[in-house]
Amino acid sequence: MDSKPVVLITGCSQGGIGHALARAFAASDCRVVATGRSKTTMADLEQDPRFFVQELDVLSEQSVQNVLSNVLEKFGKIDVLVNNAGVQCVGPLAEVPLSAMEQTFNTNVFGPMRLVQAVVPHMAYRKKGKIVNVGSVTVAAPGPWAGTYTASKAALHSLTDTLRLAILFIFAPHQFMP
């Protein structure tokens, strides 16, 4: 098995944070699995042999399972998961349609958790892995038109803290003993 770390990144559309992260990890000699809802938004990465480009809809359990199967078949491991995919939702809370709020939470909260739940068994079996959930500074200073987006990122921050504590408790329970 290749010793280079395998990094799976969601939300790698050109011009975004995920795309820049994919390039940075590749420059650091990692095997990068760049994902997005459409390969056309990652066409430049697909032309570069340093990237394994996959279509991934974080809202679909089947899509997540397909990508994980493809990655494990090709590389045999996932060392790092970067949950970067996300959507904005702008407008006053009293007027934002509930369907838009649901879509934001489905993408920004349940999407990352879908990936976490899919990859953790593999990482736990190997006793190795890192998960990065991309949050937002808006959680610390919410604006009047970003309530839904901010709330979704606050939920992701909370879930991430809980996951960190759960893993710490599993691997270092003595830190929780009196």
TrEMBL record:
Organism lineage string: Eukaryota, Viridiplantae, Streptophyta, Embryophyta, Tracheophyta
Family: Belongs to the short-chain dehydrogenases/reductases (SDR) family.
Gene Ontology CC: one annotated term: endoplasmic reticulum
PROSITE patterns: ADH_SHORT
Membrane-spanning parts: none
GO MF annotation terms: oxidoreductase activity
Protein name per Swiss-Prot or TrEMBL: Uncharacterized protein
Keyword terms of this UniProt record: Oxidoreductase
Organism, as annotated: Citrus unshiu (Satsuma mandarin)
